[in-house]
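Handout, section 4.2: multi-component inputs.
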Amino acid sequence: MNDQSPVRGGPPNLVQRLAVATPEPIAGRVRGLSDRSIAWLFIAPTIVLLLAINIFPLIWTIKLSFTNYRANRPNAPVRDVGIDNYQSILTDPDIWAAMQATAHFVFWTIVLQTLIGFTLAWLIDRKFRGHGFWTTLILIPMMLSPAVVGNFWRFLYQPQIGGFNYFISFFTGLPPSSFEMIGSVKLAPWSIVVVDTWMWTPYVMLICLAGLRSIPDYIYEAAEVDRASPWRQFWSITLPMAMPFIMLAVLFRGIENFKMFDMVNLLTSGGPGSTTEVASITLKREAFEKWRTGFSSAFAIILFVTVFGLANIYVKALNRVKQR
Amino acid sequence: MSGETTSAKAAGRTRLFRRGPWETLATIVIACGVLMLLQPFSLALYTWSFVTTLTGVVMFTIVSKFPE
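Output:
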């Protein structure tokens, strides 16, 4: 008989002896914990961590957004300026221009990624020979780090040695060094659109592919029986049934591109001039070049509320997809 | 009699405060705010965009607690 097994009427085993040895108040406290209390005990570290790294900085940023605080002058007196920072941001034509640059970037990346992504998904869904290989190949850009992508597209965009200019000149006949993607005021906004489209179209393709694969075959079979043309099947079955998934991809890419920073910062740093200065680049300049911490906090809160609003719509769309 | 009136009122209130339509309205307000923020046509619309988005977000947060 081992030490752990209780024997009725026999000598007390190890557990019983330990229970007797434990002082009564502690044992009572541990035994008295309800399931709910134990659950709270387990999730408490996560909640504390969440409060420390998410909620506290958010509340601190909201507080700073109503002051004239500058992080490079920590000893200077901090004055409460009310909603002046918000007022300045929302009446500043330069920040409005940054918002328009963001809008250009977000709009065109979403349009191109949705069109190309859906077309690729539709083609991959045909299940042709070697479609697994092509799917893997198409997904590669998505797996790269934005820092790597930003750096190597900088080289690709070089007018003298970059491959992109030679690629364009092959199709258009223009001399490769006759145009500069990153240096030109007209082409620079498109250069970031091209790179983001190249990188994130596979992601949209994956979501669209999930949507296309969720359409049951019997609907197409019924359409075949009714002699619906492939074109009619596409417009009446494929597109409407894949639409919630497409909306999901559009919203997700919209949110991500609205706060895009790393790739644009590496590729153009907002230049030439401020033609590619998207909102997050302006925020970085205000916070860490001009050191207007209060002002940039207010700007961050404006961007946060916008992204939070978009995320609400995203969750609503996600629930609609789940209900299907 | 008064019990029936009370329950009819409660049913009317439940009908009025259903989540679906209110959430849709809040979503439209948020979308309007975002469009106002990003549009290139009017500085006045840009100025009022944040208030509109914030209204939509607060509204969404409240109405998402309404019954189905």
